[in-house]
Amino acid sequence: MKRAPLLLAFAWVVALVATLGSLYYSEVRLFLPCELCWYQRIFMYPQAVILGLALWRQDFGVWPYGLALSLIGGSISTLHLLEQRFPDLFTLACKPPVPCSTEYIPQFPIPLQALIAFLLIALSMALLSREARGAA
Length: 136
Known about the structure:
This protein is 71% helix and 0% strand. It is elongated, with a radius of gyration of 16 Å. The chain contains 4 helices and no strands.
């Protein structure tokens, strides 16, 4: 159970950085979030709180919640990346005033940043589940 606190701390830091990063983009850089960005935020923001509380309480049983939120959020990020690459393929969430195909940072798209964060958290939660089961 030695790695469990580190895995949980890593996941929390990733969620916190992703949350603060998205707030920076919208509040400082004034990037308007599209509909899919909002859905990704719905699955990232709670993790900054949930994982932080779990770390503070040393509650390693939090992994199913973090894993579920990350897998759903990562799926939305993947859909968003596909929307950006193939805008005519998907029209389900691409609505004005900010279409989901808008790329504010073409070199490192925001949905890719979110996907990486979701994958890192999901991997941490999967490894945490192994640690938690091994200790039981």
